[in-house]
Structures are given as structure tokens and as C-alpha cells.
Specification:
heterodimer, A: 510 residues, eight-stranded mixed beta sheet, two-stranded antiparallel sheet, 11 strands, 52% helix, B: 92 residues, alpha+beta, two-stranded antiparallel ribbon, 27% strand, globular
């Protein structure tokens, strides 16, 4: 089912900006995704991958949304429940409309706009061309989850041609089609990024050679899953010849050669893949796995990543996180030292180094590392799990750990007797909305040591009232979806008001 | 602001920290964060120790290779920005 115009990009919220540029208004949106991306916009919150559909419906770009979920999401009551929980929470955040739930579909109103959920087989008929919006992760996440991590299938549960055939069978016509890779953040494993390319090519009406290349990729990954390395390698070779400008065949071949112990060949293939497409050097090909999946699986993946690219700072960072989970602080320190050596502006590595040095009792080194991470975040460096957003005059700091790191620095400063600096760091932490019981009591202790008992009592009072806030935070922490736990949609609740500006003394120093 | 004020004090609702050589300022009311470069950080440090603008210029002309007129213009410009963002209070 070709579409007149097809756009492909990494972050899904780009779709919203594209629709705006195209002057789209009052259209039906068919959103094919393992995530709804329609969380309510809160005060100060920016458009993100988690809420861009809300922006589209509030601005009249979209008058109706159909969220097409992976087939298994309606397979049984337990799975339907995940969809139900999402819809209830969405409805609560968007005006409290009733949720009507059926065996194979559901619907509600979000800010007065119809929002329905179904599988590709239950897609309603549309009388006019729609906005078709597909997230590549749909193909490899077999069901919607709520309050837990996304589970990826070992092979796509639905291949691009199957999805597009289903949409065509429903009589769907797309006015504009948008495709998001969603590799950053770990939603689509890098291994499957090529499925996004394939979707886009099929929507554009790709030439047969190109399609044969993608089919060779399918053959290859199926062969890999069956342990048939020879067939896999032969199919990857075909894919490489048919898709000479695509990085995916080379990246896949590199992984296969690595597993076959042909390390130098693997490194060379990987280098070629990155030359063709720099996005294949993303940290999300490994470090995210360490953060999202279990530690033993992560360690194996990361060691493999380091074999593939010994200069991979993110892999060292991932190794450090695994070591930290196992309380191997010296190992963690060594991995982080390597990560920082390879990538001096690696914010997360400095921050983790702060934690490790603190655990090792090296307060001064810990403070230096924490402060370096804060400095980097203010200079616009992005933490691994967040995206930076340029918003007018200021760069909004999307760094959910900013306040917590300030509080950690404050604790160390207090321990060193640097009370005034400690108090300042606590106040900055509070302004970043990191203002729970522990930091409030920390500041109270600093104020007592500064002989300011009245102000200390004030902080103790706030600590007591923060108990309620912390309970709410815990609730959010354990109820938010994996997409949101990995991405900054809740960030506005923590630190949206922290923005770096730039005031510079400009005296000549020649 | 076109001339040096006689007296400057840090606003009550402004806090600052030195992050490994970079001074950051926060206006607790607006929630806006600001970074100062090395020289801006030095000026803030002097303000923090209650040094007044005239003396700040004297210190800077000793520490840097800059003439007095240029230095005053730059200090005035920075103070102007700091006032605008509610980080200092000035008096003439």
C-alpha cells in the first residue's frame, strides 16, 4: 500500500513536527505502535516521544486516533488488562472520559477526541486517506505491557509486508506515512532497525532489487535463529549486494562473524557499517541493554560489543553498571575510567563514577565526578536515557538525575564541612524537584551546623510534608510504563524548570 | 546600566555553585540556571566576597591584560545581565 509521501526518522515525536510542517489539519491518525505516545501534557512539559499525539490532537492536526496494537495485546484477559490500564490512565489524564472496553477493541475520549484501540485485523474502514504513523518497535514487541519492561520477540512477530498487507486489506489509504526507528532508548533493538527502512521502502513502492535485499535479510535472520551460520552468511552476502547503501547487512554480518570467533573480520564489517550509517554506533546497541535487561545477559552482550569495537565507551559504561549491580566497585571504577578516557564528555559515566568513588570512600573524587556530570549536563550533553530539546532561548536540561546528583554533591560537601556550598547544592536540588525527605533533612542538618535553627526547623517541616510526595513518587515509579521509564516524559515533574542560559563576562584577556 | 553602580549585593533568592571551575547560578524564584565563563565566575566570586564594582575592576585590571575602560564596560554588561535575571541587586 504505497503512500504519496513517506518520512522516516529516529525519534517518534518528529512525526508531530512533520505534520505541522505539512500543514496537516483535522485528519484521522492510525498509530501503529507498541506504545500509545499520548500521555497528557503537563505544565512545563515539552513535546516528547511519549506525548506528541496529545500535542497533535490539541492543535487540531488530528481529529481521531486509532492506536493499532500488536495482535497478542488482545489475546487473553491478562494481556487485555495492560491495554485497559493504559486507557484508564490516559482517560484520567485527559479529562476523565469513560473507557469502553470490548473483546477486541476499546475506546475513550482524550480531550474530547475519539481514541480507540484495536489490532490490525480489527482496523475500521476510513472514508478518506489517513495519517499513517508506524513505530518499528511494533514489529518486534508482541504485546503492549503496563508497569513492566517491553519484551522483544527473538524474530519479528509481524514482518513489514504482513503489516502493510493487513492495512491494505482494511482498505486503508495513507495521505502521509511516518515511520520511526525508535532505537534510541532501546525500544527497537538496533538489530531490527532495518525493518523500519523496509517499511519505508515498501510504502514508497520500492524497486524489486531493494525488496529482494530485505527478503535476503529475513532469510538470514531466520537462519541465525536456527543456528545455521552458513545459510545466514550466504543470505547476508546477498543482502549486502542488493542493499549496497544499507548498513544493516554489514552490521548483522559483523555480529555473526563475532559469534563465529572471526573477530578481525567482524570489526572490519562493523567499521564499514558505521561508515555507511553513523547511527549504527549508537550507545543503544549495548549500554541500554545493561540498564533494561538482566545483568548476566547484559554482561555477555557488552563483552561482545567490546570485541566488535574496543573503543566503545558506552559498552565500558554498561560493564560498569553491571559491576555496580554486583557491588564490584573496583571493577566498576576501572570500566568507568576507560569509558571516560574514550569519551571525556560522557555524562553518565562521570555520574556513575561519582557513585562508585563514594562507595569506595573517596569523597573528594566522588564530588569531582558528580560536579563534572552536572557541568556536562548544563553544557547540553545528554544523558543516555534522555533526549535534549531545544526550546527557544534556552536548552532545556532533560536530565532526570540532575537534582539527585546535586543532592549527592551536597551530602559530600556537608561531610567536608563546606556548609555554604552544601546548602546551595541542596537548594539547587530542590529547584530541580528533587525534594524528598532525605535531602530536606540533609539541608536541615547543614543549617543546624550553621547555627540557623529556625531555618533548620522549616526544612524538617518540609521533610515531614514531603513524605506524602514521596509516596506519590513511588506510586508513579512503579506504575509507569517501560517507555516512560526509559524516556523523559515524567521529567517535567522532576526538573523541567532547570534551564541553562548563558551569562558571560567578556573582558578581553589577551 | 551604563556606568558602574556603587554597591552590588547578591540577591537573596540566588544561589551558586562552582562545578570544577564553572560557576553556575540559580534564581530560586524563576528556576532558571545560568552558567558563567571563567571570568564571569571570577566576578561572581568577588561579588560573593562583598567586593564592590570599583574594586572588582581594579582586581581584574591587575589580574588580566585589559585596560580600565574596557574592563568597566564588560563588568557593567555582566552586572546588567545579572540584574535582569534577578541574581543581584544594585544601588547607585
Amino acid at each position: 500500500m504505497p503512500a504519496p509521501s513517506v518520512y522516516i526518522f529516529e525519534n517518534h515525536d518528529t512525526a508531530y513536527y512533520r505534520w505541522r510542517e505539512l500543514g496537516v489539519t483535522n485528519r484521522a491518525l492510525v498509530h501503529v505502535d507498541a506504545h500509545h505516545d499520548a500521555w497528557a501534557l503537563k505544565e512545563f512539559s515539552s513535546v516528547t516521544i511519549a506525548n506528541f499525539i496529545t500535542s497533535a490532537l490539541r492543535q487540531g492536526i488530528v481529529r481521531e486516533v486509532v492506536w493499532v496494537v500488536p495482535d497478542a495485546s488482545f489475546a487473553d484477559e491478562t494481556k487485555r488488562n495492560a491495554v485497559r490500564m493504559h486507557l484508564r490512565r490516559l482517560a484520567r489524564g485527559h479529562g476523565g472520559s469513560k473507557v469502553i472496553f470490548g473483546a477486541s477493541s476499546a475506546r475513550t475520549l482524550l480531550d474530547g477526541v475519539s481514541f480507540s484501540v484495536c489490532t490490525r485485523r480489527e482496523l475500521p474502514r476510513f472514508a478518506e486517506p489517513v495519517l499513517l504513523d508506524i513505530d518499528t518497535d511494533y514489529l518486534v514487541i508482541p504485546e503492549v505491557t503496563y508497569g513492566g519492561c517491553d519484551r522483544h520477540s527473538s524474530l519479528p512477530w509481524c514482518w513489514p509486508e504482513e503489516l502493510l498487507a493487513s492495512l491494505a486489506a482494511a482498505g486503508l489509504e495513507a495521505e502521509h506515512a511516518t515511520v520511526a526507528y525508535s532505537v534510541e532508548g532501546g525500544f527497537t533493538p538496533l538489530f531490527w532497525k532495518f525493518l523500519g527502512d523496509e517499511l519505508a521502502e515498501r510504502l514508497k513502492g520500492a524497486d524489486p532489487t531493494c525488496l529482494r535485499g530485505f527478503l535476503a535479510m529475513h532469510d538470514a535472520v531466520r537462519a541465525v535463529s536456527l543456528g545455521d551460520a552458513n545459510s545466514a552468511e550466504a543470505s547476508y552476502q546477498v543482502a549486502q549486494e542488493l542493499l549496497p547503501q544499507h548498513a544493516a547487512p554489514r552490521f548483522h554480518q559483523a555480529l555473526l562473524q563475532l559469534r563465529l570467533g572471526r573477530i578481525e573480520q567482524a570489526q572490519e564489517k562493523f567499521r564499514r557499517a558505521v561508515e555507511l550509517d553513523k547511527s549504527y554506533s549508537t550507545p543503544y546497541r549495548n549500554a541500554a541493554i545493561a540498564l533494561i535487561n538482566g545483568r548476566s545477559a547484559a554482561a555477555g552482550e557488552l563483552q561482545e560489543a567490546l570485541l566488535l569495537d574496543p573503543g566503545d565507551a558506552a559498552a565500558y559504561y554498561g560493564m560498569a553498571r553491571v559491576a555496580m549491580q554486583n557491588s564490584n566497585w573496583n571493577d566498576a571504577r576501572e570500566h568507568l575510567r576507560r569509558a571516560i578516557e574514550l569519551a571525556p564528555a560522557f555524562l553518565d559515566a562521570h555520574r556513575a563514577m561519582g557513585e562508585v568513588e563514594e562507595k569506595l570512600g573517596h569523597s573528594a573524587a566522588a564530588l569531582t565526578a558528580y560536579d563534572e556530570s552536572l557541568k556536562l549536563s548544563l553544557s547540553g550533553q545528554r544523558p543516555l536515557l534522555d533526549s535534549g530539546i531545544v526550546d527557544g532561548e534556552y536548552i532545556q536540561v532533560l536530565d532526570p538525575e540532575h537534582g539527585k546528583t546535586q543532592a549527592s554533591a551536597a551530602r559530600l560537601l556537608a561531610r567536608a564541612g563546606r556548609l555554604q556550598e552544601s546548602a546551595a547544592a541542596y537548594q539547587i536540588a530542590f529547584a530541580s524537584r528533587y525534594n524528598g525527605v532525605a535531602p530536606r533533612l540533609g539541608l536541615a542538618w547543614v543549617l543546624l551546623r550553621q547555627n540557623k535553627p529556625d531555618r533548620a526547623i522549616g526544612q524538617i517541616g518540609r521533610a515531614i510534608s514531603a513524605v506524602g510526595i514521596d509516596t506519590k513518587w513511588l506510586w508513579k515509579r512503579f506504575t509507569r510504563t517501560p517507555k516512560n521509564s526509559a524516556r523523559p516524559w515524567t521529567y517535567a515533574e522532576f526538573a523541567a524548570k532547570i534551564q541553562p542560559g548563558r551569562l558571560t563576562g567578556t573582558t578581553s584577556t589577551s | 546600566m551604563t556606568s558602574l553602580p556603587s554597591h552590588v549585593s547578591i540577591a537573596e533568592r540566588a544561589v551558586s555553585r562552582d562545578l570544577n571551575g564553572q560557576r553556575v547560578l540559580l534564581n530560586l524564584d524563576s528556576g532558571l540556571y545560568f552558567g558563567l565563563d571563567e571570568l564571569g565566575g571570577r566576578i561572581w566570586q568577588l561579588l560573593d566576597s562583598r567586593t564592590q564594582p570599583e574594586e572588582i575592576c581594579a582586581v581584574l585590571t591587575r589580574e588580566y591584560d585589559v585596560d580600565r575602560k574596557q574592563c568597566e564596560a564588560d563588568v557593567v554588561s555582566l552586572l546588567h545581565s545579572l540584574v535582569e535575571h534577578g541574581l543581584i541587586v544594585v544601588r547607585w
